[in-house]
């Protein structure tokens, strides 16, 4: 996947004709970028852009290919979504992902800082625990940094938590809500099952099992695809959900809350995922962790060293860039 691959999508995200947002999906030709672009088109690159442009929705689509077309792709964007990068496969470590995807994210966020510095930046590219610090440091280098506008998309962890809890208790997953905090990899993923709605009883063994499944859910998908790919469809769904929520808030909808990995002071970490109240200018208020159980306190304590190491790796990557 070329680092400069992108698709610009325009659509009205509300019933008001005045409330329109222009967005770019950078990496829209990839395994996850394609269904994500399709979902965003419903509420790019050559034939894909042409294909999407024939769908009868209010969004219009234009494809761009290569770094030289990034300025045209990004100019005037209100929201940029970055799924570009390589997915997790068997034998690929999280460190491998950072090494490969870091330069892609750095290149694309540098283009965003230059050509749409006011846009909301939604990074999906793994490892989010490192790519968000990369995006932040790149924006700082270009004098365009706003901590309220750079988001690590961790929504898939919430979607999985809701689904797995619903399966256990025979509930409608659409009515279940489990905040997930911390980071977006392995044990840094911390589902706050004590804060779930609706309230349901889970014995300790079941609680530990479902928390572990949420943390390692990507492994289920990688194994199921027998090395042919990683999470694409569910991540596209989760990414679209976050973008729709963000644009709703930008258009004035009140009370929009999503978890995201952002600049933070929680748990003495420079970045941390917590529930955020979203608004017209991005983060309106960080709602913090709230009251948690001893089990969740332990999970946080176990996650912090790994989370800090990943953050440092991202920051050092930008510091060492030529």
Automatic annotation (TrEMBL):
Catalytic activity: (S)-malate + NAD(+) = oxaloacetate + NADH + H(+)
Cited PROSITE patterns: MDH (PS00068)
Domain of life: Eukaryota
Catalytic residue list: 184
Domain annotation Lactate/malate dehydrogenase C-terminal: ranges: 154-318
Binding of substrate, residues: 88, 94, 126, 160
Matches recorded under SUPFAM superfamilies: LDH C-terminal domain-like (SSF56327), NAD(P)-binding Rossmann-fold domains (SSF51735)
Assembly, per entry: Homodimer.
Name by which UniProt lists this protein: Malate dehydrogenase
């Amino acid at each position: 996947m070329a680092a400069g691959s992108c698709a610009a999508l325009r659509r009205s995200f509300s019933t008001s004709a005045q409330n329109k947002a222009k967005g770019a999906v950078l990496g829209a030709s990839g395994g996850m970028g394609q269904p994500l672009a399709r979902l965003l088109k419903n509420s790019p690159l050559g034939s894909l852009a042409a294909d999407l442009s024939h769908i009868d929705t209010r969004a219009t689509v234009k494809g761009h290919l290569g770094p030289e077309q990034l300025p045209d792709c990004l100019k005037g964007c209100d929201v940029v979504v970055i799924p570009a990068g390589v997915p997790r496969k068997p034998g690929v470590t999280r460190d491998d992902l950072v090494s490969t995807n870091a330069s892609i994210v750095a290149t694309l966020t540098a283009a965003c800082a230059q050509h749409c510095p006011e846009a909301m930046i939604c990074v999906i590219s793994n490892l989010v625990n490192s790519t968000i610090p990369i995006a932040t440091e790149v924006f700082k280098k270009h004098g365009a940094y706003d901590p309220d506008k750079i988001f690590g998309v961790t929504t898939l962890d919430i979607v999985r938590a809701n689904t797995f809890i619903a399966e256990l208790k025979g509930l409608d997953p659409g009515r279940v809500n489990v905040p997930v905090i911390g980071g977006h990899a392995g044990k840094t993923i911390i589902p706050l099952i004590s804060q779930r709605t609706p309230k349901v009883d889970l014995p300790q063994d079941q609680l530990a099992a479902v928390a572990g499944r949420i943390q390692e859910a990507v492994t289920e998908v990688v194994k199921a695809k027998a090395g042919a790919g990683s999470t694409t469809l569910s991540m596209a769904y989760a990414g679209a959900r976050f973008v729709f929520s963000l644009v709703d808030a930008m258009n004035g909808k009140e009370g929009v809350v999503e978890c995201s990995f952002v600049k933070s002071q929680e748990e003495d970490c420079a970045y941390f995922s917590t529930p955020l109240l979203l608004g017209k200018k991005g983060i309106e208020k960080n709602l913090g962790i709230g009251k948690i159980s001893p089990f969740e306190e332990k999970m946080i304590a176990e996650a912090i060293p790994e989370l800090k190491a990943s953050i440092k790796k991202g920051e050092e990557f930008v510091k060492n860039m030529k």
